[in-house]
Amino acid sequence: VKQYLDLADLPQDLIERLLSRAKALQHKPLNRSLEGKIVALVFMNPSLRTLASMQAGVMQLGGQAFVIQPGAGSWKLETRTGAVMDGDAVEHVREAIPVLARYADALGVRNFAAGEKLADDLADATIKLMASLCDKPFINLESALSHPCQALADWKTLEDLAVPRQGGKFVLSWAYHPKPLAYAVPATALNMAVKRGMQVTVLRPEGYSLPEPVMARARELARASGATLAETSDRQAALDGAHVLYAKSWAAPSAYGRPADEVKLRAPHKDWCVAESWFAPAARDAKFMHCLPVRRNVKVADEVLDGPRSVVVQEAENRLHAQKSVLMELLAPEASW
Ligand code: CP
After folding, report:
1. Nearest-atom index, ligand 1, CA of 292
2. Binding site membership of 142 for ligand 1 (Cβ less than 6 Å)
3. Which of 206, 256, 282, 302 is deepest in the core (most CB within 10 A)?
4. What is the CA(107)–ligand 1 centre distance, in A?
5. pLDDT tens readout for residues 108-122
6. Going by C-beta distance under 8 Å and a sequence separation of 6 or more, which residues neighbour residue 249?
7. CB atoms within 10 A of CB 280
């Protein structure tokens, strides 16, 4: 069974093929490679881009998609192994996923971090369980620790912008957000940039280092690709010569699962709202990336989002091309493009 769970696990030749096909599909968007195929999309959490671009992508390839939003028109699903199901959830994914796999030719599933136990979320066990229950191709549409469709789209965006692989300077910056957020997007963006062979810096306030297992994985990927990986709280040093600033908020590992404590830790860092002043003078030409959705004037100022350095809409467009490439890889690998 073919699965797309984490970009960082893919061999380089497969990534190159996915990128080439995504680029070709951007210029020739319609084909019939998914004719007669049905894709089930399960969204345990909200979405704008992933929900819309997966449906649009399947349709542009001649297939059909249906969407299940557990708890909103279909049964609320339990994911915990061994749960005593006497609460809201009336069906377990252990039944729901194999059932949906009988109706569809592929499944895409979004299931965010529970945000309770750090070790559990870092293990990304729930999406792996769901993938193991599915005997059809399976696409991770964002799990506790990985957002591979975003990563492929972001890699393509860097190619589109001709940001160098070796020597390209990529800054993953923490940004303020009123709530502690999961590690899926920052971990995925970090792994994407190191796998691409870039000079990567994680910029964050003290106390907001990414969890050690996340950094360890990135270091391992960097060793294989020739990337460099550094970490600092010095904004000016991090941004010196940067080609890209990729902003994202994430929780402090020391208070993971304790949002009331975490809010106190982040309160002093409201100035971590990306502004034009961050880029002057040493990163004047740097691009601004963010996966969206983004809170304006909390995480990033209007002046950045509305200015020429922002490529957030281009990233979102690339979700469509990237996911179509993944769908063809899984469901129609022999189809021409
Ligand atoms: N970037 C992203 O996955 O957007 P959505 O949450 O809107 O799908």
Report:
1. 1
2. yes
3. 256
4. 17
5. 999 999 999 999 999
6. 174, 175, 176, 177, 181, 299
7. 10
